[in-house]
């Protein structure tokens, strides 16, 4: 099979996944041109990581929720509530910063248990439970804060979202440590990709040709190292990026390799078949929402650290950004399909579009229209693929 034929086969077999990567490259290229290169400048690349990290964290949890056939409309309010709890303890009560972090995580667990109970064991649809949660947790945020904003956090807490690791290995005009971490990431990706390809060959499954495989790895390596180089020229490696990387790797393994992950896909793909196969549907659904609560609290910690305080309106509309990232990243509306990496790419597409339009000085109302249209087109693309696969018009 020639490289061209291999490319055509892979694109036709995995159009949803392939299309999102192509779209991401096109959008980055477009806004790089429209902003005269400012989009990919070292300072702006760093700002992209800092400004949108909490949306990407929410998208990791949301993709699992959506794969399981649910939706969560409350995560923005949970971000606000967990940040408020942390702020009251650390800023008002003068407790150590790590107490605020632990309290925020405990609040996220409690929220997940609450919503998981109603969805899994009472049987109320997640849309209704989390819609109620959106109102409940926003109201609790107002009560906790007393309708006022609290700031500032101590320097240690601020470093969670705004700290950097740099200068550890030196460098003239760039940070060597950041480049080293990027190189380690590239090596890990290459090894994992080769093992995945070998495993597919072992079971007689189709794979891309070796030249195409090498080209894909080289392109990914070039993008990652260019990204790391721009970070190294600015302020070094953001601490929040390390946190995000661990979450992406960990949850990719959970969704693809663990029994829990396979059960989530089974429930979202065909609930009746999952029940007949012995999947403990209630327990899996319960833990899906507990997990979402924990990740929403992590996002709340990062956001409050980034904003250096807690506000009653914090997290407003975050749930829509997270949901949009997941659907743009290739998840199916009906559940059973989606990946953590796809959600991250979808989130980065939203981030690049928002950041690019801000750099161009486009009005906020126009930005909202564009983002809404992108979400609509992503879902329409999913519906089109389903109809084509089933032979319907």
From TrEMBL:
GO CC aspect terms: plasma membrane
Transmembrane parts of this sequence: 20-39, 51-68, 73-91, 97-119, 126-148, 168-191, 212-231, 237-254, 284-303, 323-353
InterPro entries: ABC_transp_permease (IPR001851)
Chief location of this protein within or outside the cell: membrane
CDD domains documented for this protein: TM_PBP1_transp_AraH_like (cd06579)
Annotated protein name in UniProt: Xylose transport system permease protein XylH
Recorded GO MF terms: transmembrane transporter activity
Coiled coil (UniProt feature): none
Keyword entries, A-Z: Cell inner membrane, Cell membrane, Membrane, Sugar transport, Transmembrane, Transmembrane helix, Transport
Bilayer topology annotation: Multi-pass membrane protein
The keyword Nucleotidyltransferase is assigned to this record: no
Keyword Transmembrane helix among UniProt keywords: yes
Job of this protein: Part of the binding-protein-dependent transport system for D-xylose. Probably responsible for the translocation of the substrate across the membrane.
Subcellular location: Cell membrane
